[in-house]
Specification:
Layout: H1 3-17, E1 19-21, H2 22-29, H3 33-45, E2 50-52, E3 55-57, H4 72-76, H5 80-91, E4 99-102, H6 106-109, E5 121-124, H7 127-136, E6 140-143, E7 147-149, E8 154-156, E9 169-174, E10 178-180, E11 183-186, H8 189-199, E12 202-208, E13 220-223, E14 230-234, H9 239-247, E15 251-255, E16 261-264
Parallel strand pairs: 4-5, 4-9, 5-6, 9-12, 12-14, 14-15
Antiparallel strand pairs: 1-3, 2-3, 7-8, 10-11, 11-13, 15-16
Helix pairs in contact: 1-3
Length: 267
């Protein structure tokens, strides 16, 4: 990630969470502690943030605390070519008329473009996904109830008895903060709770992650690898990561940025 992109992440994160640690920013950007500390020093000198012990804080703390992790606006511009290829491969798995769940995220958002030519029953907790499909497709769209978290453009409900429990899906499509031997990882407990509810309504779980997510970690594990049916990523996936998925009996699809798909069968 370039310096300007790291600065955007830092500024966006402190607007959302007020105080952010150096370790958190390392996890969000993939940069070293030394690099993040230099970035914080630069932004501090520019009077855009305030440097504090072990991290950085906003000059104007938010009144409403949002979700942990990078914002939708920051994530949307990262690795866009790979995300589009992964999303096209995901939509290839969809059949007209079948019910599907699409969890909010910038990779899953790219599914809206190839879905424009489909007629699926789509349940989503993503405000931009729902809005785009309503305007530019003939898909049936249902949204979850709850509060809209502006930074992630996602709808989360604090209640157990919401409309989620009344929708069944053949497949659920979702991204993740990171993925490793312990499974899928997320950055915020509220996201974990919402995604667990959605996963319980689908027969199959299809994970959409670009290859950099195999190097990212979080303190919160959403589910083990054994819950994943299919994982779609780009050609940057390492042999080690592919072997990890194969050992967990996860079907791997590698989406080429040129549009071709490589179906790697898992044993």
């Amino acid at each position: 990630m370039h310096e300007s992109e790291r600065h955007r992440v830092i500024l966006s994160t402190v607007q959302d969470r007020a105080v952010v640690t150096v370790i958190d920013l390392c996890n969000l950007t993939g940069a070293s502690e030394a690099t993040i500390r230099r970035d914080i020093a630069t932004l501090h000198m520019q009077k855009k943030v305030r440097r504090v012990r072990g991290g950085v804080e906003s000059l104007n703390p938010p009144q409403f605390v949002g979700l942990a992790g990078r914002t939708f606006a920051v994530n949307e511009a990262l690795r866009i070519k790979e995300k589009r290829a992964i999303a096209r491969a995901a939509v290839e798995l969809c059949q007209d008329g079948e019910p599907i769940i699409i969890n909010g995220g910038t990779t899953t958002f790219q599914m809206v473009h190839p879905l424009a030519n489909r007629r699926c029953q789509v349940f989503t907790n993503s405000f931009p996904i729902a809005e785009h499909l309503l305007k530019h497709s003939k898909n049936t769209v249902m949204v979850s109830g709850g509060a809209i978290y502006r930074e992630q453009n996602i709808i989360l409900s604090p209640f157990e008895n919401d409309v989620t429990r009344n929708f069944y899906a053949r497949r659920m499509f979702m991204g993740a903060q990171g993925i490793g031997p312990l499974g899928l990882m997320e950055a915020d407990p509220l996201l974990i709770r919402a995604e667990e509810k959605l996963m319980g309504q689908a027969d199959e779980l299809v994970v959409l992650v670009d290859s950099t997510k195999f190097e990212q970690r979080s303190s919160l594990v959403l589910c083990g690898l054994d819950r994943i049916t299919t994982l779609i990523t780009d050609e940057g996936i390492s042999d080690k990561a592919a072997a990890m998925l194969d050992a967990a009996d996860v079907k791997l699809i590698v989406a080429q940025s040129g549009g071709a798909l490589e179906d790697v069968a898992a044993s």
